[in-house]
Amino acid sequence: MIVLLLQWSFLFLISGSLGGFVLHHAAKELGDGPRFFLAHWLGLFLWGNLLLWCTPFTPLSPLMILLPAGVSLALISHPPLRHRLPPKIDIWLSLPLLAAMLAYGLKIPTTSDAISYQYDIHAWLSNVGTVPGLALIHTRFGFLSSWFTLPALFNHGPLEGRMTASVGAFAAFFTCLQVLWALRRALQGTLPAPHLIATAALALAMFPTIALNLAAGPSHDVPIVILSVLCFWTLLLRNREEMEMLPILFASLALATKLSSLPLLAVCGLCGLLQARQPFRYACRAAMLVTLLMLPWVLNQVLLTGWPFYPLGISLNLPWSLSQEVREIEIQFVRDYAPWGHGETLGLPARMFKWLREDYTRLISTGYLLMGLVGMLALHLRGNRAGLKATPLFLGIAGVSFWLWTTAHPRFGWGVIAILPTAWLWTRNWSRPLFPRLPPGARDGLAGLAVFLFLALPPHLWTTGTQRLVWEAIHRGDIPAPGSRVWSPPTIPAIQYTDSPPWVVPHQPTIIQYNELPLSQRPMYFPLDLRYELQFRNPERGLRGGVVIMATLPEYF
Predict the structure, then answer these.
(1) pLDDT in tens, 327-356
(2) φ and ψ at 390, to 5 degrees?
(3) 151-190 burial by CB neighbour count: b if 16+ within 10 A, else e?
(4) pTM
(5) DSSP designation for 493
(6) Distance CA 337, CA 352 (A)
(7) I need a surface site. Which of 105, 271, 361, 498 has the fewest CB within 10 A?
(8) For residue range 73-111, what is the model confidence (pLDDT) as tens digits?
(9) Dihedral sign, Cα of residue 344, residue 342, residue 465, residue 404
């Protein structure tokens, strides 16, 4: 817990100063509260994006924290760039929230993606950096994200394997802090509608992510959830020319995090182009910004897979490029989550019903969609068409359409789905305080209670299926129980999922000498599915020089 608190302090300092510096030039008219939260979100994602420039040349080490930390101290000491905690967040409310979310950050990451490839990506980035042809060893290593660079900075020495969930938990804590701030001001009637709507969307989007413990892990679906809402928020605020680049900025950062955020960039760019006073000038500035933020990600993708936009686009046919067959297998694997992608003989209504029954998080997503339709109907009945047109609800509609078309797995769409239910907030009058007869202290307590009930407590009460399997294995003694968490979070368990009881078994890192390729140098918790005969690209440099294909193994295709 002590290490986690120190890491969050670094994240808080660096993200706030970096994002505050950008917002000082991009949105001078924002109030203190919105500026504070937007600055930290922006700085967190910008820092991860900047680290992507380093990974092709050097491993990520803790020493890389010192320079941005020093720059951050210099920035926050500059009077024009100072921004402090919003004065309406009291210590007596925020400290218990911090304690609750620190406990949340000490959970064991047990999602299959975390154990199968995301933790290993942290290890590669922290020990070697970006390796040309790494996706040939494990195809999932081709899904690099700027989100993975932040935990990799701390993945060293006694902390190796323990900081996997730290950044996701920090995002969960900061979400709760923003919701607490917004609830307090909404109860007082002093929160402008754009900030209320955006925070409501963030709460709806992050609730299943936090409650189902997805944020207690390295998943890069968590930042996409947040960035979807941030694009929505900045589109709501885009009433001044000086703020016109903020939506495209957040959309570009989202695309450098995961390609599933492509609709965010398309909608933000289109809205900006249609509303810009000088469309050509806006298009040039937006193109330069997108190129600058996407270039390090594209460079890493080329090195890892030989595809600039893997698994989309075309291959560059490099010696380490993944084959077209592998790319199609990966795309189909994702699309099989959709109710119309299973190739079953059932009719579409039966498949949809089966899809809903398999995972109750899909019921949450469906409920959000229905709430969005009700909200838009309420707007229409109240004649508030102007308000409906003024809000960028098209972002939610386009995002949900893309989500349904590609995967329809709930965790890929919570961010854009949560935008739709907030439409009904336009029908409310927030100029007067709620519960005006309650004293201010009671309203503050009500806001704090709401945050704990809806965002802080569920993660400690709900248990996912994978967590249940892991804890059963711990109780049986099959895998070791986590030790004391006072100093640092627990290490990720070395487990393997099986198709028969006991379902979870301990897994020893596989020692493979495959064409003189010592894969035992990296922690591999899942059996490797090697599809190629490989060799070192530069034998003198070993793994740092990358790997190339000698021949394709036909039995895999």
Answers:
(1) 888 887 777 766 665 555 566 677 777 777
(2) -70, -25
(3) bbbbbbeebbbbbbbbbbbbbbbbbbbbbbbbbbbbbbee
(4) 0.90
(5) P
(6) 11
(7) 498
(8) 766 666 555 544 555 566 677 888 888 888 888 888 777
(9) negative
